[in-house]
Amino acid sequence: ITIKLIYFKPSPKITIFWVIFIGFFLTFNTFAKTQMPFLNILGEYSQKQLPELAQATVEIVEHIRQEVRRVNWGSQIVQEDLRRWIAGYLDDRDLVSYNQLEEVADKLVQLARRNRDNLMT
Which end of the chain, N or C, is less surrounded by CB atoms within 10 Å? Predict the structure, then answer.
């Protein structure tokens, strides 16, 4: 069996396309693994439009990432502080109704606990 290697020199347009595509894929894959589950929870409880929810999700997940990296993340106090921060964030931006703040914040913290490994990357 003979294997021929063929050198293909793509045009600059094709190269740019693939660079953008790969960057988008890697970004979306990271988003899908880490942020999409949080967005899904917000979407269940919020009447806001997707762009606003997506921006809030990015900000919430970034804050959660900082918290789960802490040495004492397993502490109930740290997790309760995070839950209060999330509830305050949601309330300040009127993302969910007042009577659902605690429930949504609790679900997001539970999700952070389950997905800690993905959030650490």
Answer: N
Q: Are 119 and 112 in contact (CB under 8 A)?
A: yes
For the stretch 87-112, pLDDT in tens is 999 999 999 999 999 999 999 999 99
Ranking 15-29, 34-48, 60-74, 92-106 by mean pLDDT, the lowest is: 15-29
Dihedral sign for Cα atoms in the order 113, 85, 103, 29: negative
Question: In the structure encoding, which two tokens stand for residue 75, read together?
Answer: 């502490």
Cα–Cα distance for residue pair 26/101, rounded to 1 Å? 32
Q: Concatenated DSSP letters for 71-84? A: TTTT-HHHHHHHHH
pTM of this structure: 0.74
Cα dihedral value 69, 72, 101, 115, nearest 10: 50
Q: What is the DSSP string of 8-32?
A: ----HHHHHHHHHHHHHHHHHHHII
pLDDT at residue 26 in the model:
47
- Tokens read off for 9: 């020199």
